[in-house]
Model the fold of this input.
Amino acid sequence: MIDAMAHFFAEWGTLGMLVWTLLKIICIALPLPIIVAFYVYAERRVIGATQWRYGPTRVGPYGLLQSFADLLKMLFKEIIWPQRANKGLFTIAPVLVVITAMASWAVIPVSDKLWLTDIDASLLYIMMLSSVGVYGIILAGWSANSRYAFLGAMRSTAQLISYELAMGFALVGVVLLTHSLNLLEIVHHQEGGILSWHVWPLLPLFFVYWFAGIAETNRHPFDMAEGESELVAGFHVEHGGITFALFFLAEYINMIIISVLIVILFLGGWMAPFPFLNEIGFLGITPLGDGFLWLVVKVVFFLFAYLWIRATFPRYRYDQIMRLGWKVFIPLTLFWVVIVAVATQWSRMFG
Amino acid sequence: MSFLALLFYIFSAILLASALGVIAARHPVHSALSLVLAFFTMAALWILLGAEFLGLALIIIYVGAVMVFFLFVIMMLDTRHPEKIKANWRVTLPPLVLIGIIMFAELAMLIMHGSHAREAMPVPEAGNTLALGQAMFDRYIYSLEVVAILLLSAMVAAIALTHRKNPLAKRQDPSKQMAVKAEDRLRLVKMTAEREEDNESDVSSGNVSLGNKPDGKGISS
Done:
């Protein structure tokens, strides 16, 4: 069906391509906030269950509409600009965070045929966006003209930059294995079942990428940006109403992106763990055929792990976070990258 | 005018405006942000030329790391009174004009005699990253090594400068903290339960009372 639609729009020339691309963008951008809404609901229910209480149950059946009620409340709240705040930057900061979070989806392939664009350096593009996302945080903290917000921004920027290095090195391992920066080629390199996934040769890098990803999205136990007990709410303490909702949205979109990236880079993306499972059919329909469901299952595990970790572990202290990033993760990734480089060169030269 | 040409003119206009903003903005944070915008549009121009690796690397390195540290430092400074920072024009103008003239002359020479420079830059068909990597690690490997050693020595020097031992500084040793066991801090004692009346005679006789040390000197000492 997708091929037919692409063909239909291609006949219109440039205008058709524009409409087709816009359609695809809408198909990505519209479901995301809804997924985020249900993810927030799931978070509150899961943590409630972990702590032996209910969580939201009142709005809608089983409390399913709780996030939408919260969203409506935030939409109708007044935006308050603090005194002597830099009004323009204060308003643009949350928008910047959401743009960088949304734009990453342009290159993420979710199945064999579903993606928006296929550029050669898509991995670099995603790294670029994650490094630009820091600006939203630092500008939000600075423009609010508040000590708490500024301290929160400083902390989380330093944290993000430190963990970006570890993440970058973890990606170097993946690139060394696949010889490509293209996410599609990275997934296709892992074809052939669970044993050919990258997670086995790159096991330490997989864990580093996972935990650095948790730190990158400012989630527990690395949520220094917020640190309620120390900084009230961190860099967005002065943001209220819809401006806060945007930060919230961006945080959860980033969590989904990190989960999808872990799956694409290390766990074979939409590939089935055992390829014959894709052949299972019923009345000519193969429900697992295009692999989208595999991706969803794997991503949901990592999304659940975020909540699991949050419900289980206490928050790190700031100096412990920095120590973990610089003295444990970066040396570990450097060491493993050297090993992977030697191994790939060895196999190329001697068989 | 093709679509790419239109994009080129739009990005160039933004680039020039933001470059002007860097020197014209009153507030240092604003001029740093203009510089960020300039890097961004520059990267967009490079990507239009087909150099997507260079463009993305420019954003990752300069926007994502260097300018963030710039902003860090500028935001830490006391910039609430920009008029205080204003320099004395009579002192600063002559060297500035000299530097401007030299840079303009260099650029003019480059542009006028630049025809062979343009020929030396063939745009690879596909796999920009691959072509760049092959050029860097094959043809220019020695220059790359020299640059790498230069950067390494700069890094070591920077760390050595900032990491001098300060005898007054107090540090936490996380490995020591993590090695602490519950037994070191807390002792559970097994003892038989006591009742209030058993102690009463002691309290009334004054041998043990609140706040007094065993030697009987009391709180005032």
In short: DSSP finds 14 helices and no strands in chain A. The interface with chain B takes residues 89, 119-121, 124-125, 127-128, 131-132, 134-135, 138-139, 142, 150, 154, 157, 161, 164, 181, 319-320, 323 of chain A (CB under 8 Å).
